[in-house]
Amino acid sequence: MPKYIDLLRGRRNPGEPDEELLAQEDVPREEAKQEEEELLDTPAAKKTAKKRPRQSQPGGKSYLEDTSQPSEALVDEAKGLLSECTRIMFAILKAATGNKPVPISKLWQHLKPQITETIRDPKQLNALELKVSETPQHFRELSEELGGMVEKSINMLLLGIKVGLQLKMPEEAILKLVFAGMLHQVGLARVPAAIRKKSSALTKDERKVIRNSTQEGVKYLQACGSTDKDVLLAIGQSQERIDGTGPRGLQNDSISYFGRIVGLLSFFEALIHYRPYRQRLLPRDAIREIILHHKPAFDTSLLKALIDAVSLYPIGTYVQLNTGEMGRVIHVHPRLPLRPIVLLDMDDKRQPIVQRQVDLQVQTTLIIVRCMYPEDLDSEDFKQVSAP
User: pTM here?
Assistant: First the structure.
């Protein structure tokens, strides 16, 4: 990826201490009324018609370089997977709050074929990322207690696939990484909400509760019938850091490979996660925060994979071009991530314009001058910068 680190220089957005990032995963507004039993019994999303094997395009062009957009069928499949993951993760987390075992392995078998298809098809992964970016408010409205944790699980699904592919991990290993990432905060669901949702600094005792939550999660998952050693070990070690600053002081290779990855992705996700009391960081600023202030805690090779896997202009974010026009990123070229496809729909005063799609890989005179989340469009900072 071209000079990503250089692009991060000169911007600083202070982060939060590790323990606080681990604690603050809930930012929803309304308690869901459905019981976990109903959610566990929901019918499967539409099955994919046929598995799409890896392939090459005419002329020897890599499949990963295909720049065509996901079809409506793929978008529907992504929507179905997102819906299923959301329902199932809410059911698991809600059951965990009451220490009620649920059939984790059965639920995973239900999701595994759909997630496998997403791993195999970059277009389907793009479609899923686009659908996730369109529904952050949905997660926050899902449950006052658990909505934020469901949102984190979905984000960990995306990050796990993208980083796993970047690391060229076998398909089965990526599935384990995704499963561990989605479930690594099950133990946190059993922590009192007053601690999990606390926006101020944690006390010593509260930090201890948070630090013990991963082991509580492992115990709960074992009670649910989970037996995969790699997954359980990754969850139990997800708060450990290679410099020994984790709860048990494990260092370097004493932390499992999956545990090191899940720990990094969870920390990164916490930085880009919405909070009602602060703005979330853009991925580039979250990466810079890690490099400047937390680099010794993480494996350098994994940090590089994360940098290469996440885009400077993620799907679903808004960008402003040198023409003043603004729109949403709808596709990122794997080989040219700084030149995405953008659906323009606003002028520089946020007034609607006739929608048009521009591919910055082709239209080289167009340059991105600014990137922002959808909620930033209504911020006072944006209004002041945009004012004549």
Answer: 0.80
